[in-house]
Amino acid sequence: MTTKIYIPRDSSAIGLGADVVADQVSRVSHSMKQEVEIVRNGSRGLIWMEPLLEVETESGRSGFANVNSADVEDLVKANFTEAGLRAKSVGIVDEIPYLKNQERLCFARNGITDPISIEDYIENEGFKGLRSTLDLDARSIVDIVTDSGLRGRGGAAFPTGIKWNTVLNCQADQKYIVCNADEGDSGTFSDRMTMEGDPFALIEGMTIAAFAVHATKGYVYLRSEYPHAEEVFNAALDVARDKGYLGKNIRGGERSFDIELRRAAGAYICGEETSLLESLEGKRGLVRAKPPLPAISGLFGKPTVVNNVITFSSVPFILANGGSAYKNYGMGRSTGTLPIQLAGNIKQGGLVEKAFGVTLNELLYDFGGGSASGKPIRTVQIGGPLGAYIPEKDFDLKLDYETFAAAGAMIGHGGIVVFDETVNMASMARFAMEFCAIESCGKCTPCRIGSTRGMETIDKILSGEDRSANAELIETLCDTMLHGSLCALGGMIPFPVMSAIKHFPEDFCLEPHATMAAA
Amino acid sequence: MISSNCGEARESDLLPLREVSMLENADYEVVVSAALKKHSNTEGGLLPILHEVQDALGYIPSDAVDIIGKTINRSRAEVHGVISFYHHFRNHKPGKHIIQVCRSEACQAMGAEGVIENLKAKLAIDFHETTSDGKITLEPIYCLGHCACAPAVMVDGVPKAKMSSDQMDGIVDELRTPKNDN
Ligand SMILES: Cc1cc2nc3c(=O)[nH]c(=O)nc-3n(C[C@H](O)[C@H](O)[C@H](O)COP(=O)(O)O)c2cc1C
Ligand code: SF4
Ligand code: FES
């Protein structure tokens, strides 16, 4: 009898040894004459258990965590039963509390299916949303997305339905759908996991968007740091074309749409949508002044929908189940669920999809299990390199766009980077300035020059030179950057810097009162 | 449940490295004209052209800049401006192997700084430099998406997660063995 084994092809799992384990399983089972079918699935998102090897059993898929090649022989000998590797057995994977306590709408399939099997996708609710649009006109599709309350998951949280509506209302001979897969924020990997683990969900979401605004051509702008995502996504595009889910007259209907993947080239600023469009046009990624909005004059001057990977891949559920089904999750104006990424110094790092309203405490301790080092968590940075540092006293904050904004913080793309008590916040503030200096597109002086001055000034504080005068200088500089920058790179780098000074003055050898109204 | 979340991969599981096959410089004209031909009808196709060239040669030779500019009707300065804007593109031939180390926050939270210092010392080079034997180039990178299993590096395109200084030392030693010379 053939045993079905799952070993993720997710690149984090590969980084932890999954390819070697897969090779070893096929080698050992072959030499022991055991029939084994190995499926290279996506990751379940329990990155702390990777490589997580799963075995199909009568009672569900049973897992072994942190498997390495030395474990394989015992496993094969025991015919992949628990007895073979008791120390690493985690039982039925679906029953693991970390997974069971999530609300997976967007990540419902990740880790369960073979990412490039369209049959697996369809068997697991795939293309239901797309199918429902075949009888809908563009306006009705936009209305359903508007009704869901979905907001952009790339950072700015702009209502998706409103954006699509603007593009729908434009008259043009050509419109574009552009997917922002530049995922530059440290601590984020949900776009990567989607493209490596459930690429058809993104294809479906983009196709629905195309039908909603009468676009015929789509681009995915994918960061060059993600070669595995590129490979899987390109393979999925070929399959989708082959099966009539992309191309002319999709599913025998009247609409046509195709997607091209474009590789970025390692510039953080190209995640900003107008810089991204410049890059897609083959230019330097200089940020464009708005207006005009990309929705009105975007790629090659045409009306363009620009959305994040997770925004698009949230759409199939909405079309399949209705806007109100989505709206039932979440709180206030933050409707639905967010794939949150637990990263950095966290014991159980990985992907946790929850409805908005979950608190940081629940995420960090109930899901995350505290720090990886075992030392107390001192702070978290949320929303990438432009996000504020949040001190422990605020860990009761609920994940909700408005709650975060009121606290001077942002959710961004949902990445939470955890630091234990050994972190030096002055060096984190310095890194923020350095990052801004490296990644600035160069258009605005406060961002281009100010960031370097900021770095130097923090160095002066650290070496004990005129501490309080230099701290004041940082504050003025941050104020200039905040107000004199065209985009959020220069405009928001002050948030991590000022929050570090405000909450952790001791790391800058400053008295608490020496810092004034910080971020 | 398992007792620890160590997730430490076995030492030898981390070693297999991808074979790198970069063409020798002499072939650059062939590579460039193939790239230009492939993307001559690609809208906004300069990045795809540059990627094609760098994927094959490891960098974008300055002579290639002229040919590309002429063919797509953009000045040498313009093409050069695009290349220099993006961190990914190189204008110098890299070493046989490329180690890219993540410097971003999640990796820092797990001790990336120490791994980087150790690596620089072991290789006796700084970022953007190549060892004097031409074997290894070291580059910083800002997030590889392995932030839940940091520190992360990419060696010749292969991801390596939860890296310690000792593991990195092992990888460097492996890269330096003669069998990884071609
Ligand atoms: C400096 C900077 C970097 C950004 N990086 C990204 C990114 O990597 N991915 C992303 O989806 N959005 C990023 N954004 C936000 C985009 O500009 C834009 O708001 C988003 O792609 C719109 O899609 P959404 O509405 O689905 O979020 C960035 C913005 C700024 C200012
Ligand atoms: S703030 Fe910085 S990155 Fe943004 S447009 Fe200005 S110079 Fe460019
Ligand atoms: S911060 Fe290093 S991989 Fe994301």
Short description:
The complex is a heterodimer of chains A (519) and B (182). Chain A is an alpha/beta fold and 519 residues long.
Characteristic key phrases:
heterodimer, A: 519 residues, alpha/beta, Glutaredoxin, Rossmann fold, Ubiquitin-like (UB roll), 5-stranded mixed β-sheet, 22 helices, 15% strand, globular, disordered C terminus, B: alpha+beta, 2 domains, 7 helices, 5 strands, 11% strand, elongated, binds flavin mononucleotide, binds iron/sulfur cluster, binds FE2/S2 (inorganic) cluster
Describe the structure in your own words.
The complex is a heterodimer of chains A (519) and B (182). Chain A is α/β, with parallel strands linked by helices. Chain A has four domains: 3-100, Glutaredoxin (3-Layer(aba) Sandwich); 118-327, NADH-ubiquinone oxidoreductase 51kDa subunit (Rossmann fold); 330-420, Ubiquitin-like (UB roll) (Roll), CATH 3.10.20; 425-508, Up-down Bundle (de novo design (two linked rop proteins)). In chain A, 40% of the residues lie in helices and 15% in strands. Chain A has 22 helices and 16 strands. Chain A has helices at residues 11-15, 18-31, 69-77, 97-100, 118-123, 128-133, 138-148, 160-169, 190-197, 199-213, 227-242, 273-280, 309-321, 323-327, 360-367, 401-406, 425-439, 445-448, 450-462, 467-484, 488-492, 494-503; strands spanning 3-6, 36-39, 53-57, 60-64, 89-92, 176-181, 217-222, 258-263, 304-308, 330-331, 334-335, 337-344, 350-355, 377-382, 389-391, 415-420. In chain A, strands 2-1-3-4-5 form a five-stranded mixed β-sheet, with helices on one face. A five-stranded mixed β-sheet of chain A has the order 13-12-16-14-15. In chain A, strands 8-7-6-9 form a four-stranded parallel β-sheet, sandwiched between helices. In chain A, strand 14 (377-382) and strand 15 form a beta hairpin. In chain A, helix 7 crosses helix 10 and helix 19 (450-462) packs antiparallel against helix 20. Chain B is an alpha+beta fold and 182 residues long. Chain B folds into two domains: 11-85, no CATH class; 97-180, Glutaredoxin (3-Layer(aba) Sandwich). Chain B contains seven helices and five strands; from the N terminus they run ααααβααββββα. Chain B has a five-stranded mixed β-sheet. In chain B, strand 4 (153-155) and strand 5 form a beta hairpin. In chain B, helix 1 (28-38) runs antiparallel to helix 2 (46-57) and helix 1 runs parallel beside helix 3 (62-72). Chain B is elongated. Chain B starts with 27 loop residues before the first helix and ends in a 6-residue tail after the last helix. Chains A and B meet through helix 1, helix 2, strand 12, strand 16 and helix 17 of A and helix 2, helix 4, helix 5 and strand 5 of B. The structure holds flavin mononucleotide, iron/sulfur cluster (SF4) and FE2/S2 (inorganic) cluster (FES).
